[in-house]
Specification:
Blueprint (H helix, E strand, L loop, with lengths): L12 H26 L9 H13 L16 H5 L61 E3 L14 H15 L2 E4 L6 E5 L2 E5 L12 E5 L2 E4 L5 H14 L19 H10 L7 H9 L52 E7 L18 E4 L16 E4 L8 E2 L3 E2 L4
Parallel strand pairs: 7-10
Antiparallel strand pairs: 1-2, 2-3, 3-6, 4-5, 6-11, 7-8, 8-9
């Protein structure tokens, strides 16, 4: 700017202009430096790895035990300053060629979600409430019937009466029913009543003569009474204050070494009695006059007798030797242990006699035992007289009922 009077510029003008230009240059330099410094590489992106690294010092300070925590703030710096390398992004999938069909995927149906809610138990009855007593259901009698074959009259007989007799024989041999006795769970076999020939004219004196006997329908034990059944009897006798038998031994063996009175008392407890001699022989012999429960020929492998070297010489379980079964599957009617019957012993042509010095008439025992060495003493028509108070290790029994309860 010039002076109006002299026409010359003021004295301080060049100095001010120099400082002003210097200030502008410095400002531009600062701006350029700031601009260059501001163009640093951007901070790495926050990824899952970086988050986990930053979380390390935080997690390390959380344990309850002081010894496991970080002891000073300086322990936090190294994890925080650790360089984090971001993971390389996964490559994009290749584009699908539209000219090719996409493969079909086997999509399995999803299972329905399971309910996690718990079922609440019913609320307990209020105090003082009287609950009705629960009565146990009575055990029903289980009866298994074998179908009766079609009634076809057999051929090869001269008259109608003979054909009807043969039909009756076949019906009696093929028809049988089984039931379980409720009181002790013993299986029983129903033997249909009929007329049959008792005795054997070719046997010893006490088996002669043959004679016809009418027997009503009855039930008989499929197995000899076992020690397990005897234990149940003793338990009931103790509870009722009655006399016990005093049973001991293996549960599956026959109950032996009992007197006639003890055997009869047991059978009365189950609702029956010892079988009569005629009932026992009909169950063992049927109406066809067989010598053995299974037929006319002896089978030493199906009977427990002492007939040869190497015989067992002891009783077997009551349900053993199925091949020796008789009518309706009855086991051990011959062998194993001899069996008490209800009748007094006498010859078929004489009345029972009282033996001198005995406590009563002898009772008939049937079937032979594991001690029998002569097969003729163990047939279905063999018999022996035994004093009622006798107790033998080879003498047991089975029971008979007129009807199933």
């Amino acid at each position: 700017m010039s002076d109006a009077t002299t026409g010359q510029a003021p004295r301080g003008t060049p100095r001010i202009a120099r400082w002003t230009g210097l200030g502008l240059a410095i400002a531009l330099l600062v701006f350029a430096i700031g601009y260059l410094l501001g163009r640093r590489a951007p901070p790495p992106p926050i990824t899952q790895a970086s988050s986990e690294a930053r979380a390390e010092p935080v997690i390390a300070s959380l344990p309850r035990r002081p010894a496991a925590r970080m002891r000073a703030p300086s322990d936090v710096a190294p994890p925080m300053e650790r360089p984090i390398h971001p993971q390389a992004p996964e490559p994009l999938p290749a584009p699908v060629d539209a000219t090719h069909e996409r493969p079909e995927r086997d999509i399995q149906p999803r299972e329905p979600a399971r309910s996690t809610s718990r079922q609440r138990a019913p609320p307990p009855p209020p105090r003082g409430a009287r609950m009705p007593p629960q009565q146990p259901a009575p055990a029903p009698t289980q009866v298994v019937a074998v179908p009766v074959p079609v009634a076809v009259l057999p051929s090869g007989f001269d008259d109608q009466a003979a054909r009807l007799a043969e039909l009756e024989r076949q019906r009696h041999l093929t028809r049988s029913e089984r039931a379980v006795r409720p009181i002790d769970g013993a299986p029983m076999v129903r033997v249909e009543g009929t007329r049959f020939t008792m005795g054997d004219n070719h046997g010893v004196a006490n088996q002669r003569p043959e004679h016809e006997v009418d027997v009503a329908t009855f039930w008989i034990d499929q197995f000899e009474v076992s020690i397990e059944q005897g234990l149940r009897f003793d338990e009931a006798a103790r509870a009722e204050g009655r006399v016990e038998i005093g049973v001991e031994g293996d549960a599956e063996l026959p109950l032996a070494d009992v007197s006639w009175t003890e055997a009869q008392r047991f059978c009365e407890w189950v609702g029956g009695s010892l079988p009569t001699e005629a009932q026992w022989e009909l169950a063992a012999r049927a109406i066809d006059g067989r010598d053995w429960p299974w037929g006319s020929d002896l089978r030493t492998d199906c009977v427990n007798l002492d007939l040869a070297i190497g015989s067992r010489g002891e009783a077997m379980p009551v349900d053993s030797l199925e091949c020796g079964s008789g009518l309706g599957g009855i086991r051990h009617l011959v062998g194993n242990v001899a069996e008490w019957t209800r009748d007094p012993y006498a010859l078929y042509t004489r009345e029972p006699v009282l033996e001198p010095g005995s406590r009563g008439v002898r009772r008939v025992a049937r079937g032979g035992s594991f001690l029998t060495r002569d097969e003729r003493d163990a047939t279905t028509h063999a018999r022996e007289g035994v004093r009622p108070g006798t107790r033998r290790a080879d003498l047991g029994f089975r029971c008979a009922l007129e009807s199933m309860p």
